[in-house]
Amino acid sequence: MNLIEPHRFTPHETGSPTSVTLPGLNRSTHVDVMRINPGLVLAHSHFSAAIRHDDDIRRPEDQLILAFNLSGRMLLIDPQGKAHAMTGGEGWIIRSGGRRLQRIVEKGEGCSNLVIALSVSGLSPALAAMLAPLLPPSAPFRRLRLPVPGTATLQTLLDGRSDPAALLRKEGQCLALIGHALEEIAAAPANGQPGGDHDLLIARLQAFLSERLAQPVTMSEIAQEAGMSHVTLNQIYRAATGMTVFEHLRQLRLTAAEGLIRHTERSFTEIAADCGFSDASHLSNAFRRRHGMTATDWRRQAREKT
């Protein structure tokens, strides 16, 4: 059984993407790794289904690991001997404390994971102190409801770019995912099982919708972001907000358009494009339904009141 220490093959320089073939294996099993900043590493691992993988893994004591299963299945066995199966697009947060973990990928299954490694020393004292009770040595693994990042996020994280602007963007994306994970485990019951409070889910989805106002978005993409079926998601969303997901998206788009109409001289065609309406006519129809008047009349009245 091999002892793998990922930090030993992580490049020391920031922005130097490296593809590492694991010891004794061919190219079909490898890890694409990049140091985003001195305390933040992004890795995309690929384990071939042609053979069985059985290794010991040891990471630095102060590393916090956020891992998302992208395909296949991996079994991780913690120092207490408890097995954790990473599969089905699940997310996990792990703090091994420098102790060995056994990693098993069975022949015929293979596996691919997205891994974000963060040095705890880079966190604020308040966040670092929070981790001790949430991820104690006796329970270093927590399965998350936080799903695998959406396709667009994965594509930009794994695009191979390493210029300064791209590194800054990737740092923000990674820290946002870690923040979501820490919020979730802080809000979960002490036993680590997902609770019934959906406030974090709703807040995360509202932020997601706000970022996608100008872009086409499908219910499948939103359900993937939430990690549940669209039927279940709409039930939860309606119970929390009184609206379905798309009803709320339409409301966000119209509110954004109202602000631009009131405070800018931009054309309705431009505003429609920026706020997710197919054209100016679509925008005007939405205004009629909400305000009983066209967007032109609403702009004039708003200016008169001002």
Q: What can you see in these coordinates?
A:
This protein is an alpha+beta fold and 306 residues long. It has two domains: 2-161, Jelly Rolls (Sandwich); 198-306, Arc Repressor Mutant, subunit A (Orthogonal Bundle). It has ten helices and eleven strands. Strands 1, 2, 3, 4, 5, 6, 7, 8, 9, 10 and 11 form an eleven-stranded mixed β-sheet that branches. Strand 3 (30-37) and strand 4 form a beta hairpin. Helix 8 (268-274) crosses helix 9 (280-291).
CATH superfamily of the largest domain, by name, is: Jelly Rolls
Outline type? elongated
Round the Cα radius of gyration to an integer and report it: 23 Å
How many domains? The number is: 2
Mean pLDDT: 86
CATH class of the largest domain: Mainly Beta
| Class computed from helices, strands and strand pairing | alpha+beta
The helix content is 40-55%
Sheet having the most strands: 11 strands, mixed
Spans of at least 5 consecutive residues with low confidence: 190-196
Residues in β-strands, percent = 15-25%
